[in-house]
Amino acid sequence: MIALEKKIRILVAKPGLDGHDRGAKVVARGLRDAGFEVIYTGIRRTPAEIAETALQEDVDVVGLSILSGAHMELIPLVLDELIKRGLKPKKDVLVLVGGIVPRDDAKRLLEIGVSAVFGPGTKIGEIADFIKKEVEKLEKVKV
Length: 143
What we know:
The chain contains five helices and five strands.
């Protein structure tokens, strides 16, 4: 009998009122083409909706795309909602942020539980390689 390898599951979400989702769709499609299972929530999701979807879909990665400048307000809320549902960032699930995030803000986000911040122009292969390497370290996943 052949053992099937579990595909890495990624949730791509757009928290808040930001309606610009072209980049999120490009990344979601690129990660799907790289062999990941990708769930895209669409735009204007609340932190609670994102965390609940992450729990229900049993994802390994939550990718958040924010271009509105509200990253310092929304990302901590998403992290809190994940924790409320028993999903510990950097232990049970990777939380990745994409968008225009100032360096000081990115540093703070990494300190509070985000695993990586990817800016404009990041290659899909770079994101995919990061995910493959870091998902292996999660406590809940044995890839």
